[in-house]
Design brief:
The structure holds 2 protein chains of 2 kinds. Chain A is of the alpha+beta class. Chain A has a single domain (9-159), classed as Dynein light chain 2a, cytoplasmic (Beta-Lactamase, 2-Layer Sandwich). Chain A has helices at 9-25, 52-72, 111-137, 154-159, and strands spanning 5-7, 30-35, 40-45, 80-84, 89-95, 99-105. In chain A, β5 and β6 (99-105) form a beta hairpin. Chain A is globular. Chain B is α/β, with parallel strands linked by helices. Chain B has one domain (3-193): P-loop containing nucleotide triphosphate hydrolases (Rossmann fold, 3-Layer(aba) Sandwich), CATH 3.40.50. Chain B is 31% helix and 28% strand. Chain B starts with a strand and ends with a helix. Chain A binds chain B through residues 1-9, 12-13, 35-39, 41, 51, 53-54, 57-58, 61, 64-65, 67-68, 141-143, 147-152, 156-157, 159-161, and chain B through 1-8, 11-12, 14, 42-43, 45, 47, 56-57, 59, 61, 64-65, 67-70, 72, 75, 87-88, 90-92, 94-95, 127-129, 181, 184-185, 188-189, 191-192, 194-197. β1 (5-7) of chain A pairs parallel with β1 (3-5) of chain B.
Chain lengths: 162, 197
């Protein structure tokens, strides 16, 4: 069981930067980064009009289902999924066994280009997440020493529901 | 496993509604969806069969407001309750922060409740969680039906840990928000402890 995923400003900016560059280099419409539990980490490109929360949850469900299929036939995971539509296509890949990179693209790009660029960005992202894991490794809660949550009072929690 | 983003000051937690087939997990989410301010919720997604049985999961994102300057978001999921969807149930428990066990109060579903509860224990263990320690709330649904088991008996059979438990009539909303509030509280308390799922 992994600790909580905690993203501080510095790593968040590093990750977002990689995603932004990928949108341009792959000629993509949108790029998302989602954690395996279905939570959106960051996105870039033409996200307006897209329900990003639903997209994140369904992507994770998709990866979980294909991961289950993989295990049934003795594979560890299927690290790349590709869905082809009439206009838009979705390229999904697992980065460092932990996060999911989603690229949506149309005829202005191609599967070959997307695969090539995703590979490079994937390597960069893997480094950043390895760094995040290192940081979390020194703190078993994964919340950081200065966690604002250690101070939550019963009243704070109660107020959420008032 | 919650996800804490210091950059956007957000905290995301995952709550799973578990229980035997037709106990009312989806109905809980539908009622929450119906009664929540549209600004505080996202779209509800139901991956269901043609006969409206849950095939993979239902999903409802909710925002509860700020806590210490952090937006708190809860992602509610249901599992498919039918016994043969066990592979899917396991997947949905990945990264769970809190579980609501929805029991069907009817006498004839008692065995199904117990079987589902044991199944929950097993599937949690496979993901590295312990049903005896994970944030858990129990809901006894369908209390309006005539052939229900008494609360004492239900508690004795299912609530071994003595966690918060609520009587409910999910289609009418009885007990639905009480259940949600209780599990959200337990998850936040767990986060405060710093063990975080």
């Amino acid at each position: 069981m992994r600790p909580n995923l905690v993203l501080y400003e510095e790593e968040f900016n590093l990750v977002t930067d990689v995603i932004k560059r990928l949108v341009t280099s792959a000629n993509a419409k949108v790029v998302f980064l989602v954690d395996k539990n279905g939570q959106l980490i960051t996105s870039s490109g033409h996200t307006e009009g897209i329900d990003t929360t639903s997209l994140a949850s369904l992507t994770a469900g998709n990866i979980a289902a294909t991961g289950g299929l993989a295990k049934l036939i003795g594979e560890k995971e299927f690290s790349i999924l590709f869905h082809e539509g009439e206009k838009d296509n979705i390229h999904i890949s697992i980065i460092g066994h932990r996060v999911i990179l989603v690229v949506i693209f149309d005829e202005r790009s191609s599967l070959g280009l997307v695969r090539l660029r995703v590979k490079k960005s994937g390597e960069e992202l893997e480094k950043v997440f390895a760094e995040i894991d290192n940081k979390a490794g020194t703190d078993t809660s994964g919340l950081g020493v200065d966690s604002p949550f250690a101070e939550i009072t019963d009243d704070d929690i109660e107020n959420l529901f008032s | 496993m919650s996800f804490i983003n210091y950059s956007s000051r957000e905290i995301n937690c995952k709550i799973v509604y578990y229980g035997p087939g037709l106990c009312g997990k989806t109905t809980n989410l539908q009622f929450i969806y119906k009664k929540t301010n549209p600004q505080a919720r996202g779209k509800m997604i139901s991956l269901a069969t043609e006969t409206d049985r849950t095939l993979f999961f239902d999903f409802l994102p909710l925002s509860l407001g700020d806590i210490r300057g952090f937006k708190t978001r809860f992602h509610l999921y249901t599992v498919p309750g039918q016994v043969f969807y066990d592979a899917s149930r396991k997947l949905i428990l990945k990264g769970v922060d809190g579980v609501v066990f929805v029991a069907d109060s009817q006498v004839e579903r008692m065995e199904a409740n117990i079987e589902s509860f044991e199944n929950l224990r097993q599937n949690l263990a496979e993901q590295g969680y312990d049903l005896d320690t994970i944030p858990l709330v129990i809901q006894y649904n369908k209390r309006d039906l005539p052939n229900v088991v008494s609360m004492e008996e239900l508690q004795k059979a299912l609530n071994i840990r003595n966690v918060p438990a609520f009587e409910a009539v999910a289609p009418e909303g009885v007990g639905v928000f009480e259940t949600l509030k209780a599990i959200a509280k337990l998850v936040l308390i767990e986060l405060r402890k710093g063990t975080g799922g």
